[in-house]
Amino acid sequence: MKRRALAILAVLACKREQRTFTEPGPGARPVSAAPNLSLAPGGPPLPGMALDPALPGYAETAQAISFGKQLYTWSNCVGCHAHGGGAIGPPLMDAHWIYGSAPAEVATSIIAGRPMGMPSYRGKLAGTQLDRLVAYVRSLGGLVRGRAVLTGSPCVLCHAVAGTLAGGRLGPDLTHLASRATLGAGALPNTRGNLAGWLLDPQSVKPGAHMPATALAAADLHALLAYLEGLR
Ligand code: HEC
Ligand code: HEC
């Protein structure tokens, strides 16, 4: 069933792709998040898709996040990180991650600890508790929302991101986007500002690029950028 659904999606993708190609250039119409494609925010990935291969079973569901929020208080993360804004420990809700924002990287920060004062929680959290804490920490930084924005937009028709519904083939695979030095095959350095500029108006950055401009609410764009920057 799922396989067939993906096949249909692929066919739809081809149709859209043709339509896009008939109206290329600076006049390309902006696309906005297509509601009929959207998954519930933080909805489960398709069966067989691990969100992060290093954390099999990890899910960013609303339930996992709300459990994680309780664990965050019970484990006294609040004592050092406040409610995400940071204090003794760094903020967890800004776009800057010292040790990476991927689920496995956040899990490692918590379980192994980090040298400048992050204690190790090894042996203090039961199996699924770690997953839930990670989901909550990622939700603080807008990463869960960012993933939902991506999987709910036409991006998925043209781009693939491993572990998500996004399986498009027309544009480059974005699974390791943040590891690339440049965007648009060398068109410009891969910085947050350039990434935002690219999404908002690819044509002005690289005339002839076969990607439509993106129209997203500022908060969604912000979350999407944070998510994309975590794809290392
Ligand atoms: C005793 C204070 C303290 C407690 C308690 C604490 N942290 Fe930390 N945490 C820190 C400090 C300090 C750092 C920065 C470490 C470094 O830079 O090497 C940090 C780093 C982190 C990072 C990495 C951030 C990044 O930018 O990559 C994460 C994630 C994190 N903590 C999550 C948690 C969670 C979740 C809890 C509760 C289970 C917790 N911390 C409890 C002090 C604390
Ligand atoms: C109609 C297909 C299409 C859609 C929809 C689309 N893209 Fe693209 N995208 C492309 C193509 C094609 C390229 C390569 C352009 C080039 O380099 O000339 C690209 C390039 C990119 C790049 C630069 C990647 C790199 O490695 O240089 C990023 C980032 C990107 N797209 C993100 C997105 C996001 C996020 C969305 C949704 C908001 C999106 N795209 C929607 C087709 C699309």
What keywords describe this structure?
232 residues, 3% strand, two-stranded parallel sheet, binds heme C, two-stranded antiparallel sheet, Cytochrome Bc1 Complex, Chain D, domain 2, mainly alpha
Describe the overall structure:
- By secondary structure, this protein is mainly α.
- It has helices at 2-22, 62-74, 77-81, 103-112, 127-140, 143-151, 155-158, 192-200, 202-205, 218-229, and strands at 31-32, 182-183, 188-189, 214-215.
- It has a single domain (30-232), classed as Cytochrome c-like domain (Cytochrome Bc1 Complex, Chain D, domain 2).
- The strands form 2 sheets. It has a two-stranded parallel ribbon. It has a two-stranded antiparallel sheet with strand order 2-3.
- Strand 2 and strand 3 (188-189) form a beta hairpin.
- It starts with a helix and ends with a helix.
- It binds heme C (HEC) (2 copies).
- The site of one heme C has 26 residues, from helix 3, helix 4 and helix 5.
